[in-house]
Amino acid sequence: MLKALVTDVDGTITDRRRRINTAAIETIRTLFDAGIEVVLASGNTVCFMDGLCKMVGTDGTIIGENGGVYRRGFSGTLRVPGDQKTCLEAFEVLREYFAEKGVELELFGAQYRFADVAFARNIDPDEARAVVRDRHLPVRVLDTGFAVHLQVLGVNKGTALAELAGEMDLHLSEMMAVGDSENDIEMLKAAGVGVAVQNATAPVQAAADWVSPSPYGDGFVEAVKKYYPYLFSR
Questions:
Q1: Cβ count near 125 (within 10 Å)
Q2: DSSP string, the chain
Q3: Strands 175-179 and 148-152, sheet pairing
Q4: pLDDT(234) > 70
Q5: d(Cα 39, Cα 63) in Å, to the nearest integer?
Q6: pTM score, two decimals?
Q7: Which burial class, exposed, middle or buried, applies to 96 when counting CB atoms under 10 A from its CB (0-12, 13-18, 19+)?
Q8: Confidence of residue 62 (pLDDT cuts 50, 70, 90)
């Protein structure tokens, strides 16, 4: 039986313009009020996630910074399996490389991050990946569709979910995960049920157990109603 839901935010419970889907919020509240654990998982910062959890109505259990941080409840201890120092060093290499090509990389809110770095999508992520590979940098380049992130190897939403499940006294088989982007693949594979919304990239859809007929937040609602039908049959 599924006892928890973990969901990505941007592109999964929002629309393409990052406007949160109100039906998705109501669906999350229905789950939470019925005793289903709800985890919001994102590349966003902890402070962003805290505000979102408050407004949506969850207990503050989060995975942030693409698995670089996670926490059980608002009052829980923030765990930081990521390594921002290594990510910042890799960012400097990329910054110098692209500066020589006349492109300035804009770092997003490093002072609010604990584990990874994020910057504007004004470069080709594949070119950044080639630089990382050629320079043997110990990071992974992630394109979420909203920003480019650097995360240390071996840290992702899936590894964070596995560790968080232990703190929640749950087995991964009791968890359902929903996502749309490449940073969600490991999370979908780790969970007992992995769902991709229709707008997800091809690799994400291939990693999922089920793909929703509709994109974005509407697809999220479809997924929840499919796997928790007893909560929505009344």
A1: 15
A2: ---EEEEE-TTTTB-TTSPBPHHHHHHHHHHHHTT-EEEEE-SS-HHHHHHHHHHHT----EEEGGGTEEESSTTSPPB--S-HHHHHHHHHHHHHHHHTTT----B--GGG-SS-EEE-S-S-HHHHHHHHHHTT-SEEEEE-SS-EEEEETT-SHHHHHHHHHHHTT--GGGEEEEE-SGGGHHHHHHSSEEEE-TTS-HHHHHH-SEE-SS-HHHHHHHHHHHHSGGGT--
A3: unpaired
A4: no
A5: 7
A6: 0.94
A7: exposed
A8: very high
Residue 49 tokens read as 């996630």
Q: Is the pLDDT of residue 37 over 70?
A: yes
Q: Report the Cα 41 to chain-centroid distance in Å.
A: 4
Q: Which residues contact 12 (CB under 8 A, 6 or more apart)?
A: 178, 179, 180, 184, 197, 216, 217, 219, 220
pLDDT in tens, 89-111: 999 999 999 999 999 998 998 89
Structure tokens at 173: 């088989």
Known catalytic residues are: 8
225, two tokens: 């109603």
Question: In this predicted structure, what is the pLDDT of residue 233?
Answer: 73
Residue in the block written with tokens 């919020």: 25
Question: Token pair 């770092």 is at which residue?
Answer: 107
For residue range 146-173, list pLDDT tens digits in order.
Answer: 899 999 999 999 999 999 999 999 999 9
* Span 67-87, average pLDDT: 97
